[in-house]
Amino acid sequence: xxxxxxxxxLGYMMCSSLMLVVNKVAVHFLQAPNFVLxxxxxVSAAAVWILGLLGFIxxxxxxxxxxxxxxxxxxxxxxTIFTNMKTLQYANVETFMxxxxxxxxxxxxxxxxxxxxxxxxxRSWVCLLTLLLGxxxxxxxxxxxxxxxxxxxxxxxxxFCLDQVYIKHxxxxxxxxSNWGRVYYSNLLPCLPLAMGYYAEHEELTFTQAxxxxxxxxxxxxxxxxxxxxxxxxxxSATYFTIIGNVCKILTIxxxxxxxxxxxSPVGIACLLLCLxxxxxxxxxPLRKDSAKSxxxx
Length: 298
Hints:
Layout lengths: L1 H29 L2 H21 L10 H27 L2 H22 L7 H21 L7 H24 L5 H10 L2 H11 L7 H27 L2 H22 L6 H15 L8 H4 L6
């Protein structure tokens, strides 16, 4: 189990990091972020369905019981994207990072209240606080803390925590034949609302060899990222998965600072490394005895 968890976490981190770079390239060439996102979801769903049809992988068929469970996932996914964009409209990326790094504290309590986990140990609480303090230190010493729309930041915070907890609940409670089935459902169902949003904005597309290549690569990474994300969610708690996502952000920031930001201070980089130390020593809270028997993936 430990080997599978490491495989899922490293796979997710690799796909997530590469996806950020490739998405920037695809959006730069196409100037249509909504279309890029829609294409990733549709191609991922179509690719998984075709591979399942050919017998290469096992994919769950569309069933109302499963669709009903994943409709909430699709709705929260779209809502998270919307509130994420609105938050970045009123707060800079560094400020957004601080709020993002504080979410494990709230999600760990949600894990206890709703998902049958124990509260984090003293060591893990210290690690979560270290993760947050490192992010705050980076912003304080290296960047500016800017927020003008606290309402949208607060809405995003609630929606993001709900997203992490609810998807973990669906992974545990909606029985699927394979992890590929989760990938298929989660990519297919958000396509309709996103297609409506794309049609409303009338984004103009210019396809070239470079833009088409970047788009296809982003779609391929989307398949891998979806697979590893759901595999990791099935193996770890909602809090731990959120921390894995935060590590991806830390590594991306360190790379960007090292390559592009010539004015990054040693103190700022040290704060980011402090975040990695807190992540390394964090221990996932175990399931409570009264809930372990009731959870299918216990």
